[in-house]
Amino acid sequence: MRIAVEHLTWGVPGKTIVQDVSLQVSDGETVGLIGPNGSGKSSLLRCIAGLRTLTAGAVRYDGVDIAAWPARERARKLAFVEQTADTDSDLRVADVVMLGRTAHRSRWRGPDAADHEIVAEALGRLDLGGLADRPWKQLSGGERQRTHLARALAQRTSGLLLDEPTNHLDVRHQLDLMELAGRTPQTVVVALHDLALAARYCDRLVLMHRGTVVADGPAEEVLTAPLLREVFDVDAEIGRDSLGHLAVGYR
Q: Which of 11, 18, 34, 143 is most solvent-facing, going by the fewest CB within 10 Å?
């Protein structure tokens, strides 16, 4: 899936939150949205997902304005994982993941063997196979996050939007998740606070500040000391760790 964001503006009465943002995401590319709190990352993701009515501009999937897609059709093309998600129902983990198959079934058909196979695969990819029958309310924050990620994988979409997906995850599952995001054939746009993870696993970084894009390119071009000083108000040193990955240190 190709995603095109064209002069996108969105806000609430009296305040513009995302201002004239344009960016292109190529088919199969993993793009990281970075920036401080309040920079507009989460709002931009919701706009791309079609969850906000734009003030101006457009979002297109493979050249088609998403305003032309009914919600059910969008759910077949793009999965969105929120930063925090909850449910009042005491569903099992497998039931939550099965919700990802809803858009692919008629209202009158229950899950079939193919649906169950897809759910089992998604559970396995997020290391949740042993928790399939665990009630939702008994899960830790990290387990809930991985469950919602598994639900998104079960949607079998060509695009994936992730809003701070490593929140609540331990280090091992953060790395596993970002490895998965980096190697999936899906087009991925992921909002991240962790600059090291973003640099290591994303093909390209988009740096946001006060609702606008201030830099867009490879990690080496975006994570520079002057830009980090301007956007995050920190003095940073950019180098390489012992494994050769881009590293950011702060003074």
A: 11
